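Weekly structure sync, notes
Attendees: PL (lead), two postdocs, one rotation student
Agenda item 3: pending single-chain targets
PL asked that the sequence for the first pending target be pasted directly into the notes so everyone works from the same version. It is reproduced below exactly as submitted, 494 residues in total.
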Amino acid sequence: MLGLFSAKSGHPLADAKEAKRVLGELALREAAAALDEVGGWLESVVADEAFKLAERLSLISLLDEAVQPQARKLGRDYLTSPRLGRQQEYKLWQANHDFWAQLGAAYDSCLERYARQEKGSEAIKSDLPLLIARMLRAYSGRLKWDQFRYGPIAGELWQRMGRAFLFAEQNKFSRQTLTPYPALPGETAVESEYLRALVFQASSMDSLLPLEIEIAERFIAHFLPQFVFTAEVRPDNVYWVDADKPVPPRRLAVLPQMSPSLRFFSAGAALAKVEAMLRQVERGEVPAEVNLGGQYSARIVLPVLRHLAMYWAPKPPMRSHDRHRVKSRLTVVNGLNGIHARLADKGGEDSEAWVVDDVSLGGMGAQVPLGANDWVRIGALLGMQPEGGSNWLIGVIRRFSRETPAQGSVGIETLSKAPQAVAGDLGGMDCNALLLDTLHSGDTVRVVLPSAAFEPAIPLVFAWQGRSARLDPIEQIETGVDFDLGLYRVAPPV
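Predicted structure, written out during the meeting:
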């Protein structure tokens, strides 16, 4: 491919020998540095008007192929690196996100030039299926990385992907099978790449953690051939999208206004298959035939499969409790240490003011300012004091979406309406904990402990109303951002 370049451009990569050297060195670079360098090359190649369209597309493709291994590695680093600081995490996220965004935009620019019938466009006609498939895969990568931080998702992204799909469909190659990358096994098609992005969005990732989102995406790829994608209005349609509009796919509550660019999809046979796999994993067997990108226990995989089965079903998930619309202020304290200090009347960290949108017996929805600390995430423990009240509640963020860079929306599950702060002994170590339930001898109670503090054989002992109380561990219920939630049995008083 390097032999096709002309000498008209002054760009360094217009020289075949220099391009070969750069591409060879890229393959040897550390992942973050390689993706950063490729971003610069992509930007300069797209901007250089001296390149013919075939030369431009060839260079973009070669740069893309050169760093695919590093892109996969950097993505794994984000998901598996232990205890990243917030700045480190954001830097790693941005490197991944920006690469996929720039790559998608680079392929998109070639498609736009072809659609305008720029001089030399005919030379890339046979490459269009691969161009659009890679463009959609790159934009899907951007979508996933946007979702790792829970948005916002630009409406323009849906329109660009939708119009590329429609272009392929109109030119009768949307279902043409192809191999997206020489070094990666498996075949795809433009329609498959577009549908995968639609299913990803329709699967409501705003209540999953980043690792769970990654696993869900892998399951989507595995089950995708069983999905039904059609332009027909059918009784079994579950979701719809207008491929020509800057809007995401939506559940089919009512029939949308008809349009030639309207498309429908449903899980089809995939729903039965995911439910069967769910029963298999409930028995402790993680299926080996699914490429999940790593080895994961049934405990990690199970909630992902349950989530997908719920959102792929014909009927939407039902709320456990009715929600009531309100507008009220909520004082919020973040994390176990801050909550414990507030409940123990020892001051504590600064609080934040959120606005509650709706409430139910099980929790509430709220609007959240996203400040520089940016600690809001799924699994975060909250101490909450409703406006006008003196009592504190304990809750956990279960759903999070970033409406704008400065404003988010959260769904909060209330764990306790009468928590108590205790300072106890856990196997000879001091332990600040939160009791979520009232102590009665022989009953079980839930206790919030510091992260990694729960031990199956070690009781929690503390002073309680002038006596010594002992809680014997039963099981660990949950692990959150900075806490463990354990179930204990109250021992008889001594």
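Discussion points:
- The first helix runs from residue 16 to 26.
- The CA atoms of residues 333 and 351 lie 5 Å apart.
Action: rotation student to compare against the earlier draft before next sync.
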